[in-house]
Fold this sequence. Notes:
Layout: H1 22-46, E1 69-75, E2 87-90, E3 93-97, E4 102-108, E5 111-117, E6 120-129, E7 134-144, E8 147-155, H2 157-165
Parallel strand pairs: 1-7
Antiparallel strand pairs: 1-4, 2-3, 2-5, 5-6, 7-8
Amino acid sequence: MRNSAPAAAKVTASAPVRVRSASVRICTMLRRLIPVLAAGWLAACSAAFEVDDHPVAAPPPPDLRADQARLYFYRPNDSLFPAIRPEVIINGRKVGVSVVGEAFYRDAQPGRYEIFLTSDDDDQLTVTLAPGEVHYVRTSIILSWLGPHLSPTSVDPEQGEREVQNLPLVEPRLTD
Length: 176
């Protein structure tokens, strides 16, 4: 006679089921997506592009009066991120736009000046000008984990003069 007892179900071992919460799935997705977005953003910002506007060449600067000072502002051709074009602000007044491959100047009364760029107004440069002094301010790029930012940097007069000679001197852009 056959055994009429029901056959025991065969149990097989399987891997434990892992349930992922929504926040874990979102974090995983962001971890994969952020590098792709960052690479695209950097490529877009550093790509050379055609600019419709043509800067107006400035005449050679006149001789500096003995009772005045001169500030040169420039951004070398080797700069990254040409799409970032911050305004140059001196003591709260816009005096030009920092554009890759251009230089401009402003004559000023001797005194103390606060200079910053609209891309980062926390990074100010304080300059005290003496009569007859020529001062050079270079737009420098600082890369951080937050992304690039531009900063006004004082440059040694010899280096500044050498770098400005390699750039076209233009009329300051008051609109971009």
